[in-house]
What we know:
The protein is of the alpha/beta class. It has helices at 2-14, 47-64, 79-89, 130-141, 158-166, 177-186, 192-203; strands spanning 18-20, 26-27, 33-34, 36-38, 70-74, 93-96, 109-110, 118-126, 145-154, 171-176.
Amino acid sequence: MENIAKSIADYLLQIKAIKLQPSNPFTWASGWKSPIYCDNRKTLSFPGVRIAIRDAFADKIKKQYPEAEVIAGVASGAIAHGVLVADVLDLPFIYVRSGSKGHGLGNRIEGYFEKENKVVVIEDLISTGGSSLSAVEALREAGCEVLGMLAIFTYGFEKAGNNFSENNCRLDTLSNYESLIERARETGYIDSNDTDTLKLWRTDPANWGK
């Protein structure tokens, strides 16, 4: 699993889906200052990368959730990845909106499913876990049994771990912050000073850089 985490981290760095700028931090929508920015939508533009992610997801589902009946993607970042995974596993696909549609049937969950279907949820990125778990809650309220969630990458915030634990939802990711930083250091993408900065940021991201 460590090899997969580093391999995916390599891909994310190579295609600049993840950018590291300790000396010139980004500002997130939340207002947080951050030395890292992640946009996993870019992975879809690179066939080799999206196939590697698809196959890694599929392998995990085969091993961990052989009883899965439906694949669900979290809109909008994980819809395409979810479709790719569902296709290779020959399973139905649905997706979960951030909120109910404001017209037509007012659906929040799009696609066909039945109550008590066993569902694996695909996500692209985990930060605090709030929006991801909102999708899980919507599926549960609709009568589905959520087996767990798989995501491409996680920042590994303690708050996210607590949120998933409190909501009794298993989370697994293809790569993670530790593997990314280690791989970036090994390949010379960052130096030891940058490594220290990146590690410090995650201890208190809300107040870092203030």
